[in-house]
Write a structure and sequence with these properties.
The chain is an alpha+beta fold. It contains eight helices and ten strands. Strands 3, 4, 5, 6, 7, 8, 9 and 10 form an eight-stranded antiparallel sheet that branches. A two-stranded parallel sheet has the order 1-2. Helix 3 crosses helix 4 and helix 4 packs across helix 5.
């Protein structure tokens, strides 16, 4: 992975207060209403199945990067354009909305903000969780996710997160803003200190019994200053050739420029990139 792609990746990675400004459109409301009409009676489904069906609901949705990069920082909803991270966040927030029984757009926004922002509060750019490893750790503390990496054969790994604060001119929110850059640097240092593990790419297939449909995966990269280059949902795709389920994933693909079921297996995808070291995994527990 080159440095330019690493920066694109970070942009991809990147209780609600409804009085705070929000960014959403009539189209977002229409897509939300369509989703609720189709999923309103699915609240009793197992969480893994609900997440998987919600992810499949967005198949063919266009991939668009940088949709969150607006100033001032606000809760951005864009159901018609997704990148790898907003896809994962959106699917989780919608699934949690169905499980709650309160199928309102306001409840969806509440859950989305809680998932996306460190303390569920929007103050500025530094409030948003920009690194996947921290995102999993924070949402595990909130009782939304469980980090399943170690249980799936993970081994310890050290992340030195610094690519954002080291390159403030690459981010319009940080350019000429040393105070905000310093806040980002502090959050990077804190997140780097969390205990982390990852599943080596050569160990993915042999640990398949520990995975479930709808598990969140992050692809760990060797690019300095970054932890994860891509996010997705595990999917066991049943075919004639693989009745037990081909281990692959659903994601917002920058290559295909839309949400797709990946053509490669999870292990094949991990192995095709020299900079990919393996994966981290998490499971929704709502």
């Amino acid at each position: 992975m080159n440095m330019k792609k690493a920066f694109v990746t970070i942009i991809c990675m990147t209780t609600i207060y409804l009085s705070f400004s929000q960014n959403h459109s009539t189209r977002d409301i229409e897509i939300f209403d369509k989703y609720i009409k189709e999923f309103a009676n699915k609240g009793m489904l197992p969480t893994s199945q609900l997440i998987t069906e919600t992810a499949l609901f967005f198949l063919e949705t266009p991939y668009v990067a940088h949709t969150l990069e607006k100033e001032p920082e606000a809760l951005t909803v864009n159901l018609g354009q997704l990148d790898c991270t907003t896809f994962v966040e959106t699917v989780l927030a919608l699934s949690r909305t169905i499980k709650s029984g309160n199928h309102t757009f306001e409840r969806f926004m509440e859950y989305l903000q809680s998932i996306r922002y460190r303390d569920g509060v929007i103050e500025d750019y530094s409030s948003r969780i920009h690194y996947t490893s921290e995102w999993i750790s924070v949402n595990e503390k909130k009782g939304i996710l469980e980090n399943t990496t170690s249980a799936n054969g993970g081994v310890p790994v050290k992340f030195d997160l610094n690519i954002i604060s080291s390159n403030p001119d690459r981010y319009k929110q940080l350019k000429n803003n040393p105070l905000l850059t310093a806040k980002i640097k502090q959050s990077e240092a804190r997140a780097s200190g969390y205990p982390h593990s990852y599943i080596r790419k050569q160990d993915i297939e042999k640990n398949r019994s520990g995975f479930q449909n709808g598990d969140i995966i992050g692809f760990v990269t060797s690019v300095k200053g970054v932890d994860v280059s891509h996010m997705a949902f595990i999917y066991f795709q049943k075919t004639k050739e693989s009745p037990e389920g081909r281990l692959t994933f659903i994601h917002a693909s920058s290559g295909e420029m839309k949400v797709v079921v990946e053509k490669l297996t999870l292990e094949q995808y991990a192995n095709k990139s020299k900079s990919n070291k393996g994966i981290i995994t998490a499971r929704a527990i709502f």
